[in-house]
């Protein structure tokens, strides 16, 4: 199409560039940004998108690598073996195919000819005690999950072995196994969505470190080379013993060792620490720098608060996948303005919010009030917050399908904290009330 190149977005350009790389090429966000003249945030988003498409993977200690594209399926590539574990099943036949992945499941609550239209290669048919359907599914290239603890005939088992397509039996009913599989899929999606420290440090190859025997002039030289003002201090085995910053060496002469200036036993993170936890740790401890260590406290990388927050902001721009409990609880609430222009949230009490007794769970009501406070605090300050403390009062019961209004009111706000009063009402009657102190994790 004429003129298309002029209108191509930076994001598309980056993706095309990544796709053009040879299989096995290592990809660094920093280098990508430099070579194509874009910001690291833009490059980072393109790499994440390439990961979503399946043309690159990020591996621990190796970094991000260009790979052959695998079919990307809604189920995050569950294998039949995963399914056996999820549904507490046992394998009746076709165990040579347990490593195969499935891309969808079909519930066999229909006539055979209709079923045949839905089953294709790589499906999983969930069905009860219907042997003709078992063999039909295998012939179409699908695995079979038999519910209710039923078995199948010797012929079907032999066919499963021949085709290396598993037949699995689970004592649970159809609805339960479908829920179990869905839950496992969502758990995987959510886990994949949560960014870890390793996601932002895998491309940092050179580490700037000092030994306790290093001098102040060694420190000064590192500052000049890197522009940073704090560094991890390691022993001869590369184990972290402390941190030293510009502030610590004030007034110490150039030739002197930094040993006495080191802040010992620093707070550290691991590659598997989530970015949100790293931000929260730094906020609580009042620090801007975290050494990243392995199990033996050996230094593998370091992150700054700025890098962590930037990566979290970038991640928030991406569409959310998978429903956490918080999402599920908040699904029925909408933001509005009352007649005075104040933010209010209104929604319905759903059956899922009830306890076994039919009363409404106080934990769920607390979650609704907390989420309303977090959203209001973000709206008022532009920052993300974590809950510091909360005092909650439950004043009167509320029932399923009652409509409720949640009103956050700002009591006090500083750069670091936010004190909010939350009231939940039903038809102008007070149901519950909370006072919360939130702490900003964006405050640097």
TrEMBL record:
CDD domains: CBS_pair_DRTGG_assoc. SUPFAM superfamilies: CBS-domain pair, HprK N-terminal domain-like, Thioesterase/thiol ester dehydrase-isomerase, Winged helix' DNA-binding domain. Keywords: CBS domain. The keyword RNA-binding does not apply. Pfam families: 4HBT (PF03061), CBS (PF00571), DRTGG (PF07085). Residues 202-260, 262-318 form the CBS domain. PANTHER family: CBS DOMAIN-CONTAINING PROTEIN, CBS DOMAIN-CONTAINING PROTEIN CBSX3, MITOCHONDRIAL. This is Transcriptional regulator. It comes from Paenibacillus sediminis. The lineage of its organism: Bacteria, Bacillati, Bacillota, Bacilli, Bacillales.
